[in-house]
Structures are given as C-alpha cells and as structure tokens.
Amino acid sequence: MSALRTSRSVAAAIMRGLRWAGRRIQGRVEHVVGGPARTRVVTLFAGVLALSSAQIATVGSVAPQLQSSLHLDNYKIGLLNSVTLIVAAVAVIPIGLVVDRLKRIPMLSISIVLWSVATILGAVANSYGTLLLTRVALGIVSASAGPAIASLTGDYFPSDERGRVYGYILTGEILGTAVGFVVCGNVAGAFGWRAAFWVLAIPGFFLARSLWRSVPEPRRGGHDRLERGVVDLRDHAPRTPTEVRGPRENRERDLAYRMAEDQGYRPDPRLVLQRDPDRMSLQDAVRYILSIPTNVLLIISSSLGYFFFSGLETYATLFVVSHFHTSQSEATLVLGVLVLGAVCGTLAVGPIVDALTRRGSLAARVWVPAVCNAGAAVLLIPGFLTSSLSTSVFFCFFGTALISAANPPLDAARLDIMPSGLWGRAESTRTFLRSIAQALAPLAFGAMADLIAGFRPHQAPVGTHTGPIASGTGTGLEVSFLVMLLSLFAGAWFLWRSRPSYPRDIATAAAGFSPLRGSADPTTPPASPTRRRESRAAARDRAKGGGAHVSVTDMRISEDPTVVQRHDAPTEAQHDAENPTEVQRGGEDPTEVQHGGEDPTEVQHGGEDPTEVQHGAENPTEVQHGAENPTEVQHGADDPTVRRPRRDGGDDPEPLIFPR
User: Fold this and answer.
1) DSSP code for 455
2) Closest Cα partner for 535 from 273, 263, 250?
3) Could you say which of 169, 226, 304, 322 would form a disulfide bridge with 474 (CB–CB 3.0 to 4.6 Å)?
C-alpha cells in the first residue's frame, strides 16, 4: 500500500509540475504573440494548416501498412498524394473567388468538417478505388485553407507584424507534417492504418467548432485589426461601416502604406484598381493579379522554392539510405532533425524582417528571402557532397532552415502589394501555380537521376519502405539534387529583381479600391523624370522654409475619404444647419472633415484672402484666391485631387496649394 501511495504522490507531483510548466509556457507565448486573443487566433490558424499538411504526410507514414493490407506498390501510394495535390490545385481558383465574397470563418469551419468526414470515409474504405475517391474529395474541400488563412491574416494583423505572425502560423504547417509522420506512423504500426486515419479525423471536428464559435469574422480591408493585449475575442468589437476614425487612427494605417508614401513612391495609374473586386469576374481578377510585376516575380520564386523542396521530400529517405548506407529508422531520425531546422528558420526570420521594415528598409521582405534562398543553396552543396552523415546533417540543418525562413516574409509581402478585396484570389492563383511545380518536381528529379545513373529510382515518399536499392542510386540522386539547386539560385535572382518594383506596387495597392471608400483614391501622375522624388514631409519643410502661407491637403492614401489633413493657421467655419461639417484644427494634428449627403457645404476662411469652397455632387469645385489672380480647380465626383498650376501651364505633381 505504501508503494502505491508513493507512486500516486509521484504521479500527482509530475502532473502539478506539468501544469505549472504549461501555464508558464502559455504565459510566455501570449506575451510574445500579443495577448490571449491573438494567441487563440494564431493557434487556430496554425492548427488549420497543420491539419491540412498532416493529411498529406499521413499517407507516407502509413504506407507500409497500406502496402500489406491493400497490396499496393510505391506508385499507387504516391498517387494517393498526387491526386490530392492536383485536385486541390484545380479547385483552389474558384474557391479563392468564394473566399473573397463570402464569410471566411463559417466557410473554413465547414470545410474542416468536410475534410474530416472525407478522412473517416478513407478509414473505412475497403478497396484502393474507394480510398482514391476519398483523397479526391479531400483535395476539393481542403483547398480553402490557404486562401482563407491568407485573407484572414491580412485583416486581423497589421503590416508591420505580418512577417512575425506568418512565422507562427506557418510553424503549424511544419509541425503538422511532423505529427503526420511520427504520431500517425506510430499509431499505424500499433493499431493499423485505419486507426491512424481516425486519429487524424477526430481533431478536425473540435478545431472547426472552436473556429466557428470563438473567432469573429473581420471586415475586409484591415479595418478590424486585432490589437495587442486583447484578452477575449468577444471584446474585440468591430467598427460599424459608418464609424469615422479619429485623427490618430488615420495615421496608424498599415506600415507599408505609410512608408511607401513617406519615401515618395507613387502608384502606377495603369494598375490602380478602380472597381469593386466583388464585381470582377474570375478571369478579370486573375488577369489583374498577374499584371502586378512584383506579384509575378514572387509567384515564380515561391514556385521554384516549393519545386525543390517537393523533390527533396520525395527522395530524401532514399538518398540518405543509399548515400550514407544507413537504416531507414536512422534516415527518419535525420529527417526529424531537418524538420526542427525548418521550424527554427520559420520562427527566427519573421521578427528580423519586421524590424528591418520598421527601420525604413521597405524592400526587406523581398531581399531577405532572396538572401535566404541563395544561402540555402550554398549550404546544401557540401551537405550533398560529403560522405559523413554528421557533417551532412549540420549543413542540411541550416540549409533547410533558410529555405523555410523565406516563406513568412514572402507571404507578408504578397498581402502588401495586393488590394484587400483580392487577397483570396491572389493566394489561389499562387497556390495553383505552386502546386503544378510541386507535381512536376518528382518527375524532374527522377528524370535527372535516371540520366546520371542509367535508371530511374522508384519514388519513396518519406515514411515508405525503400526496398532493395540498386547501385548508383545514391550517385544519381546526389547529382540530381546538386543540379536542382539551380532552382533556389533562380528563385533568389527573381526576388532580387523585385526590389525596385515592390515599393511602387505597395503604393498602387494602397491607392486602389477600398471597402470603406467605395472607390479608388485619386492618384497623382508620375513625377517628371527631371525632378527628384520628394517625400511629403520634405515638401512641407521646403514650403515652410520659403515663408509662404501653405495649406497642405493629403487625400491620396487615406482609408476614409472624409479625412482631410491640413497644416495651416486656425480658421473659423460656418456650418450648414441641415448638413453640418465639422472642422477640427490644432497645431499640426490632422484635420478631420465629415461631409454629409450631397448638398453643398460652404466653408469660409477669415483673413485678407477669403476662400470659398463649394462641394457639389456633379458640379466642379471652384477655389478663388484673391481678386486679381483667381485659380480654378475642378474636381470630378469621384476624383477630388488637388493640384496647383505651374507657370508653364502644366500640373504640379506635388499635392500642395500655394497662393499667389
């Protein structure tokens, strides 16, 4: 009895210690992420990607049991995953359109329930044909994960934190792959492959329930940011569409948009989105997405990175066993170390890139991944050439970390350069092209190995039995891996080329259609090539230095068309009785002007130079400066751009009004 009491006491002490450690870890994670509410959102989003990646990894981990139970070969095992990827690539484009038009949280929750049902149907399948059909259904319903998570992340988190937040979310994808290999593989070894499918399906129902009940649907366009320190998501009350932001809130818009404006980058008038994305057809949306120069370069680079990683994943076990003459269990342990390196790289680079962005390096989200891809290719060369397993693990650990480190900044950059109404379809387009690259990778790697070794090695996804290995397989795969490193170098080159176009595409996205504005912001024509690009702050300093009375009006990249910022002397305003206009001025604080209805509003400025401003729905606005030299500025109904005439008769691109 005393021994029993002692064992119970020890077990209770261990449980108390685990609970204490869990609370400490939870508190630390909440502090790093930014509060309990943020931690819950990030955890659920990471769980969605983890479950999606585990669905793919599980097939490889239960392959030995599938081979003996259903009498399958490696080709049929690989087809179970390939058909899921191909079907998902085809379905992701129309699903992206649904993501941009419907509520994403309910749609994502329903999708998780459906793919859990598809997994259960696979667990009870009694033939290979039935199992293959369940994988087809799984590819259709799981295609919503990527576009929905990308769109929701952009709406919940500001631009200056997206690199770090994406690192947390993508860590779930990597850990899901590891769980699929380790947990489901052990369950399959102990209880059979059907039990592994059940273990994978049941958590999906709880994940869908938590997502549905605890995460509110944010408004599109980033107008419902989840602030740091929020404890309960129910306390995160979204603004109503008619609520106007205060002066300080207007200045706190996305960091990338502010930096593009402050550094003087102007939007490309040809690419500014002038129409509502919800009314765009799928063909028009894809055409516009592929017309953004930086987005095309990012898609190409991302596809090349996933191309190499997919081929490496397909033949990694076979390469380790044949090149280093190890057992399959040792090869699986080596791959576990590489997964740890991928997690470290994903978590480390996001905060670094966000810090560089806040310090003024706007293009850090594209040149840092370029350096990561090039560095990974350099580190993997000795990892593939060496004959020592420990040396190879050292180099491949850091090489894998750099490959994974490129993803969080790139995912954040894609949101910066795309209007919020197209985030879902933009991610769908990228996923479609990336999936094609992933599907072609095993064929290309195998063909290269065939060319070198004189035969084509059998594909052996991670977790499958490699079977007898012919001589020359290790050499063929070694040369194939070394040659395919060119895809990483090419991806780094495309990212490096995107540095000049990235800031301007940010300004173009900021000036496009916004859900709150209802139309695009008026864009300023490109600066003259003979003039030096000048930031808005420098323009104000230059104007003030001249001693002239200057009124600066900023209406270009504002989230609310009723917000007008001015830096001039305080004046008196007369308000219409039925349609009041509120003018607030104090020092250099932004001025907020609210216009109601379409009736004209008259604002009179005192002093020796009275200015009369009349706003009408269709009539142009006339501004009179003095009696001797009147200046007339005409504004369209949807284009309230303020320009001042130059002496040569043209329009000055600087948004300043200088009285004569």
Assistant:
1) S
2) 263
3) 322
Q: Which pair of tokens denotes residue 580?
A: 């009041």
3-state secondary structure of 603: strand
Is residue 161 within 8 A of residue 36, CB to CB? The reply is no
- Give the separation between CA 601 and CA 598, rounded to whole angstroms: 9
Instruction: Please tell me the class of the 35-222 domain.
Output: mainly alpha
Q: Which residue has the tokens 């052990």?
A: 186
Contact 403, 377 (CB under 8 A): no
Radius of gyration of the chain (CA): 29
- Confidence (pLDDT) at 659: 43
Structure tokens at 165: 């937040």
Burial classification of residue 91, based on how many CB atoms lie within 10 Å of its CB (0-12 exposed, 13-18 middle, 19 or more buried):
buried
Please list the alpha-helical segments (H only) found in 102-223.
Answer: 104-123, 128-141, 145-156, 162-191, 193-214
pTM above 0.85, yes or no: no
pLDDT of residue 524: 45
Alpha-carbon distance 181 to 136, whole Å?
21
Q: Are 633 and 655 in contact (CB under 8 A)?
A: no
> Taking the mean position of all CA atoms in its chain, how far away is CA 596?
37
Strands 551-552 and 656-657: antiparallel
Provide the 8-state DSSP code for 608: S
Chunk the chain into consecutive blocks of 10 residues (it has 660) and report each block's average pLDDT, rounded to whole numbers: 73 80 77 84 92 81 79 75 84 89 92 93 90 90 90 88 88 84 79 89 93 88 77 59 39 72 88 87 91 94 89 79 79 80 90 89 92 94 91 92 92 89 89 85 80 58 47 73 93 94 92 65 45 45 42 37 40 41 41 43 43 43 42 42 45 43
Scanning 1-35, the segments in alpha helix (DSSP H) are 2-33
Q: What is the pLDDT of residue 495?
A: 94
> In 3D, which of 170, 147, 55 has the Cα closest to residue 98?
147
Q: How far apart are CA 410 and CA 9, in angstroms?
A: 51
DSSP 28: H
Q: Hey, which residues does 551 pair with through a beta bridge? A: 657
Query: Which burial class, exposed, middle or buried, applies to 247 when counting CB atoms under 10 A from its CB (0-12, 13-18, 19+)?
Result: middle
DSSP state at residue 655: -
pLDDT for res 534: 45
Confidence (pLDDT) at 647: 45
Measured in degrees and rounded to the nearest 5, phi and psi for residue 325 equal 55, 50
In the numeric block, which tokens belong to residue 355? 């810090």
Task: Count Cα neighbours of 99 within 13 Å in the Cβ-side half-sphere.
Answer: 33
Distance from C-alpha of 461 to C-alpha of 466, rounded to nearest angstrom = 9
pLDDT at 242: 35
Whether 79 contacts 134, CB under 8 Å: no
33 in Cβ contact with 39 (< 8 Å): yes
User: Can you tell me the distance from the alpha carbon of 433 to that of 422, in angstroms, rounded to the nearest whole number?
Assistant: 17
Q: What is the CATH number of domain 292-514?
A: 1.20.1250.20
Could you tell me if 170 and 52 are in contact, meaning their C-beta atoms sit under 8 angstroms apart? no
Contact 314, 60 (CB under 8 A): no
Closest CA to 276 of 517, 559, 98: 517
Residue type, 657: I
CA gap 215, 153 in Å, rounded: 12
Sequence ranges of the chain with CATH classification 1.20.1250.20? 35-222, 292-514
508-513-519 Cα angle (round to 5): 125
Q: What DSSP state is assigned to residue 645?
A: B
Cβ–Cβ under 8 Å, residues 411 and 157: no
